[in-house]
Write a structure and sequence with these properties.
The structure is a single chain. This protein is α/β, with parallel strands linked by helices and about 500 residues long. The protein is about 35% helix and about 20% strand. The chain is built from 14 helices and 22 strands. The two termini are about 35 Å apart.
Amino acid sequence: MDFLRLKSGTDVRGTAIDTEEFGPAQLTGPVVRAIGSAFLLWCEKRLQAPPAGLRLAVGRDSRLSGPDIAAALQQAFVPAGVHCFDCGLASTPSMFMAVLDLPCHCAVMITASHHPWHRNGLKFFTPSGGLDGPDLEEILALANQGACPPAAPGGSWEACGHMDQYAAHLRQLIMDGIQAPDREHPLAGFSIAVDAGNGAGGFYARDVLAPLGADVSGSQFLDPDGHFPHHVPNPEDKTAMGFAAQAVTSSGADLGIIFDTDVDRAAVVDSQGREIDRNRLVALASAIALQDAPGGTVVTDSITSDGLRTYIEDTLGGKHCRFKRGYRNVINEAIRRNAQGENCPLAIETSGHAALRENYFLDDGAYLATKIVMQLAALRREGRSLEDLLAPLREPLEAQEIRVPILEEDFRARGQALIAALETYAKAQHWQIAPDNHEGLRVSFPEGEGQGWFLVRLSVHDPILPINLESDAPGGVELLREKLRAFFAANCQGLDLSAL
């Protein structure tokens, strides 16, 4: 097989269990061993760390295929002389922290994030953070060549309880941040409901919040179960968010927290059961980050609302950079700006990937949840709430996302041509094109013409044109759709426009 077909952004992704519906597994034992061996050679070249004597951590989320993939990695690593730390059930962010804490040269996380139960994947970390797309391409190219390190003695596979150390770190942050009279129980009197979706996030209720005195009795789906029997562990999923909101309202909790499968993303629910996700989550994270970085820049993805920009710049006194979709794109842009001397404390995508400068620009849902819990305690001391903090955020009256499939084989070229044609069309119509288009085309309209905006872009990975529309007027989204339909009527070749 061509291993490069398993590349999905910065991750390896593929089917990992034979199913009647989706066919045979792609991430078989031999495939995983080949990728693991190639990673060792990449480490030797890029980290100047030969496989013999390399220290490497391995963790996995709750997927059914995780133990088999871990066993295949063991078969690749140990015979090459690698000393492996088996972290067992772990979160993706904890595996980066394992590189720093244990310490070790690198780490591999076995996860496919929110993808369906039959899929799985691999993420790679070094002390510099997660590997980027070109790094992964290099590893998969080595796998295509069948590259493998020589056998060497001294390899081992050692059980490691690093998640205990990681949870202790989060508890310490809360104790230091809240500075309660009862230092050991700063969350006494708080009720917090965690929804882990049967992924790897159950530890947060049991090992972080409960020992600090929080009532976590309203929590649900904490036990790992790779079938994900209750809902998809995904803060972007409306059904999943509905479960989290129900947990808060039924238990009378002060806060609800929901994680994705591997805990690199989170969203929250306020005490009224109102969901704080997408633009509201970006606003909350921005309010927290800018407290210690006044006037700083928040980098977000491209689909954030106009009201969010007003909140960041006018209410919080910060700056807003609306960049590209893709959490690595957002994080890399924030890192680049900081390197150039700009005060940029936060990179966050509306999907829930939030990376704070103070935390290595690591997208860590549990760290974000920890900062929100600390903010909740600070607001309570002032007689305020999260709802009060977000009250100035103006939200759109209507919002919609439409996904238009591109049917042509070279979907990327077709999508780029369509966006270029749309820009020409928009100029001819004298539409207001956003000055900060970093991907696709964003166009705004005044009152009477939709009173909102649309963004047409090309999906990061898939043959899809996502179209986001927001309006502050009743029926405004439909007006914006009509404008786009007029364009696509003359540019329909190679598209399935049924959703539009």
